[in-house]
Design brief:
heterodimer; A: 235 residues; alpha/beta; Rossmann fold; six-stranded mixed β-sheet; four-stranded antiparallel β-sheet; 10 helices; B: 452 residues; mainly alpha; two-stranded antiparallel sheet; 4% strand
C-alpha cells in the first residue's frame, strides 16, 4: 500500500534521514520505533508532505506521491494525526470533527455519529471547546478528526505522548479497532512495548536509518530493541 | 495603616491613573525649545485650558479630573461585573457559554439592520454642517471600508498586515492612471470615467494582493508583519520617486469626479460630499454583506482553522497558502475601493497620504473594534474616527492634532488591559482570549497564526 524507497531528508546541511526504506501493507498496523532523534518524526513529516525528501521515492497504491503537498494528502486517503494532537483549541469538539471532513465533498453527519460511537466521551463533550479537553480526550478528538476524512491509511505520531497509562491502553485498543474496521495504520511511537503488542510489524530506526525490522512479536523479545532505547550500540 | 492602603488595589489604580494623567498632560503641553529645554515641562503645569467647556483652569486639573472619572468608571464597570469579566474569571463557564445562542432571532436582527440602514441613509439630512458631511465621507466611511478590509486579513485569517495602506494607495493611483490623471499614459489611451475605474481599481488592488501574497504568505507571524511593512514602504517610496509614472511627491491634482452616463440616465458627482456619501454607503453595505457571508462559509472556516493551527489545518486538507492569499486579495478589494473614493472625491493624490502611520491607524480601528467581529470593527471605526475628527476640528481642552497617535496608542494600551478582545468581541476571539487568560492555549499563537 505505502512504500518508501531510499528516502533522504535534509534540513539544510544536516541529513536527518539517510536512505530510509519500508513499506506498509493493506490491513496492517505497522509501528516505527526508535529513540529521540532517530528520525521517526522526520519520517512522518515526510509522509505527510510537510518536508519533501531530497532523494528517494514514496508510492501509495502504486502512485508516486513523493512531491505531493501536505494539504493534498487527505484527498489521497492518507490522514495524519500530528504530534502533540494539534486540535483546534477554540472550536468545539463537534466543529473539530466537522473540520476533519473539510477535504472531501458530501455529507458528514453519519461520520460524526460514527466517531461518537467509537469515542463516546466525545459525544458527552461535543459542545465543549477542544482546548478545554483533557490530553486523552484531545488525542481521541485528533484521531476522530483524522478519521472524518475516511482515510485508507492513518498516520499516528506519538499517540501516547504525555498521557496516563490507562488512557494509553484505551487509545491503543481503539487503534486496533480502527484497523479491524478496515483502515491501515502506521504508528510512530516511543512507547515500544505498547506499540509492539498492538502492531503486526515493526521497524526500528537509529540515526536516520532503519536499523532492523521484524514481526512485532519477535521484536518484543528482541534485546536489540532494548539496546536502541538505552543508547547501547547494536552488534 | 498607610502601608496597607498603599498596597491596596485601589491605591495602585489611583496611582497608575494619576501617573498616566501627568504623562499625558506633559506630552500634550507646550513644547520646549533648545534655549529653554525645560520650558515645555514647566509650562505644562501652569498652562490654562477650559475645564470641559465650563470654566478655565490649570490644564493639569483637567487631566486629573479625567483620570479620576476614568478610574471611577472602571470601578463601576467592575462592580457591575459584565458577563465578559465573569467569563474570564470562571473558565468553567466557557463551556456553557459556548452552548448559549450567540445570534439573536432573525426578525429582530433584520429589524435592527433596517433601522441602522435608515439612520445611515437619513444621516446627511440631519448632519447639515458642511464640515461634518465632508468628514462623514473622508474620515468615517472610507475608514470603515478600510477597517472592514483589514479585518478580513487580521481578524479572520489571523495575518498581521502592517502595510495595508499599500492597497489603498494602489486603488487610488490605479484610478488616477485609468482616468489619465498621471504622467503615465492611460491604458490604450482611453481616459475612463472614475466610476468605471471602480472595478478596474478593485481588480488591480486584488491582483497586487495576490502578487504580494504568493511569495510572502509562506511566512508566519512576525516575519509576515515585517514583510508587509516593507511592502507598504516600497509602494510609498515608489510613488514618491517615480516622477515620470506617478507624478512623484506632488502627485496628481486632476482626478475627475465620478460621472455616470448610460443611455438616458445621467448623473454627475460634483463637489458636494453627500452623493459620495451615498455611493460609499452602498459599497460599505455591499462589503458588509459579502464579508459576513464569507465569515460563515467554507472559506471562513478555513481561515479560522488556519488561524488556530496551521499544521492541523494542512493535515485536514486545507491549503493554507491558497486561503491566506484569498484573504489578502479580498481585504485588498475594499481598500482598493476606498482608494477610488478618495481619489475621485478629493481630485488629489499624494504619496504623503499613504504612510505607515495610516496602516497603523487602520489596525488600531480593527483592534479597538474587535478583531474578527464585523459589527465591532464598524462600531470601532465609527467611534474612533468621529471622536478624532471632532477633536481635530474643535480642539477641545488643548488638543493638538500631532498628538492624535499618542491618544490612539493610549486607547490601545487601555483596550489591551481592560478589553483585549475589543469593543464588541467576535464570539470566537472572545473565547480565545478568555481561554488564554485561564491558561488554556496561547493568545499569541492565535494573534499571529504562529505556532511553536
Amino acid at each position: 500500500m505505502l512504500k518508501v524507497d531510499d528516502a533522504v531528508v535534509r534540513y539544510g546541511a544536516i541529513t536527518a534521514l539517510h536512505g530510509v526504506s519500508f513499506e506498509v501493507n493493506e490491513g496492517e498496523i505497522v509501528t516505527l520505533l526508535g529513540a529521540n532523534g532517530a528520525g521517526k518524526s522526520t519520517t512522518l513529516r515526510m509522509l505527510s508532505g510537510l518536508h519533501a525528501p531530497t532523494e528517494g521515492r514514496i508510492t501509495f497504491n502504486g502512485e508516486d506521491i513523493t512531491r505531493v503537498k501536505a494539504h493534498s494528502f487527505s484527498k489521497l486517503g492518507i490522514s495524519h494525526v500530528p504530534e502533540g494532537r494539534r486540535i483546534f483549541p477554540q472550536m468545539t469538539v463537534e466543529e473539530n470533527l466537522e473540520m476533519g471532513a473539510f477535504g472531501r465533498r458530501g455529507s458528514y453527519s453519519d461520520d460524526i455519529d460514527r466517531m461518537y460511537g467509537i469515542f463516546p466521551i466525545l459525544k458527552e463533550r461535543r459542545k465543549q471547546l477542544g482546548g478545554n479537553l483533557s490530553g486523552g480526550e484531545q488525542q481521541m478528538l485528533a484521531i476522530g478528526r483524522a478519521l472524518m476524512a475516511r482515510p485508507t491509511l492513518l498516520l499516528l505520531d506519538e499517540p501516547s505522548m504525555g498521557l496516563a497509562p490507562m488512557i494509553v491502553d484505551t487509545i491503543f485498543r481503539i487503534i486496533g479497532e480502527i484497523r479491524d474496521s478496515g483502515t491501515t495504520v502506521l504508528v510512530v511511537e516511543q512507547n515500544a512495548a505498547q506499540a509492539l503488542r498492538l502492531a503486526d510489524r515493526g521497524y526500528v530506526m537509529e540515526n536516520g536509518v532503519i536499523a532492523f525490522s521484524d514481526e512485532a512479536e519477535n521484536l518484543l523479545h528482541d534485546p536489540r530493541v532494548r539496546a536502541v532505547y538505552l543508547g547501547e550500540s547494536i552488534d | 495603616m498607610i502601608k496597607q492602603w498603599l498596597g491596596s488595589p485601589l491605591a495602585r489604580r489611583v496611582g497608575t491613573t494619576t501617573a498616566l494623567a501627568v504623562l499625558l498632560m506633559v506630552m500634550t503641553g507646550p513644547s520646549g525649545s533648545t534655549s529653554q529645554p525645560t520650558a515645555g515641562f514647566v509650562q505644562s503645569f501652569s498652562e490654562r485650558s477650559s475645564f470641559f467647556g465650563l470654566f478655565v483652569t490649570q490644564r493639569w486639573l483637567v487631566w486629573a479630573a479625567l483620570a479620576l472619572i476614568v478610574s471611577a468608571l472602571i470601578r463601576v464597570a467592575k462592580w457591575l461585573k459584565s458577563d465578559y469579566a465573569e467569563m474570564v474569571a470562571i473558565p468553567g463557564r466557557l463551556a456553557r457559554s459556548a452552548q448559549a445562542p450567540f445570534q439573536t432571532k432573525k426578525p429582530v436582527r433584520f429589524g435592527t439592520y433596517g433601522v441602522l440602514m435608515i439612520v445611515a441613509i437619513l444621516l446627511p439630512v440631519f448632519v447639515t454642517d458642511g464640515f461634518w458631511q465632508q468628514s462623514l465621507v473622508e474620515q468615517v466611511a472610507i475608514f470603515v471600508l478600510l477597517a472592514l478590509g483589514l479585518n478580513v486579513v487580521v481578524g479572520f485569517a489571523g495575518l498581521l498586515d502592517l502595510g495595508f495602506v499599500a492597497f489603498y494607495a494602489i486603488g487610488a493611483y490605479a484610478t488616477a492612471w485609468v482616468t489619465g490623471a498621471l504622467p503615465a499614459a492611460a491604458p490604450f489611451g482611453v481616459h475612463l470615467d472614475p466610476f468605471w475605474a471602480i472595478p478596474i481599481a478593485i481588480a488591480i488592488a486584488m491582483a497586487s494582493g495576490v502578487l504580494l501574497g504568493i511569495p510572502t504568505l509562506r511566512l508566519r507571524g512576525d516575519y509576515l508583519a515585517i514583510v508587509t511593512l516593507g511592502f507598504g514602504e516600497i509602494v510609498t517610496i515608489f510613488l514618491n520617486n517615480e516622477y515620470g509614472i506617478t507624478g512623484g511627491s506632488t502627485g496628481s491634482h486632476q482626478v475627475p469626479h465620478f460621472t455616470f452616463h448610460v443611455g438616458p440616465i445621467k448623473y454627475a458627482w460634483g463637489l458636494g460630499p453627500v452623493p459620495y456619501y451615498y455611493l460609499t454607503l452602498g459599497f460599505v453595505v455591499l462589503f458588509l454583506i459579502i464579508f459576513s457571508r464569507l465569515e460563515h462559509s467554507r472559506v471562513g472556516r478555513s481561515w479560522t482553522a488556519i488561524r488556530e493551527d496551521e499544521v492541523a489545518a494542512e493535515s485536514i486538507g486545507i491549503n493554507p497558502l491558497k486561503y491566506k492569499v484569498m484573504a489578502f486579495a479580498i481585504g485588498a478589494a475594499s481598500a482598493g475601493f476606498a482608494g477610488v473614493m478618495t481619489a475621485a472625491q478629493t481630485n488629489f493624490l499624494s504619496p504623503q497620504t499613504f504612510l505607515l502611520s495610516f496602516s497603523i491607524n487602520i489596525l488600531v480601528l480593527v483592534i479597538f473594534g474587535g478583531m474578527g467581529s464585523i459589527i465591532g470593527v464598524v462600531c470601532g471605526a465609527l467611534l474612533v474616527q468621529v471622536v478624532s475628527t471632532w477633536m481635530d476640528h474643535y480642539t477641545p481642552f488643548g488638543f493638538q492634532s500631532q498628538d492624535l497617535y499618542m491618544y490612539l496608542g493610549a486607547i490601545l494600551v487601555a483596550m489591551m488591559i481592560f478589553r483585549p478582545a475589543g469593543l464588541i468581541p467576535a464570539r470566537r476571539r472572545k473565547r480565545e482570549i478568555a481561554m488564554s487568560e485561564a491558561g488554556e492555549g496561547h493568545m499569541d499563537e492565535m494573534l499571529t497564526g504562529d505556532t511553536p
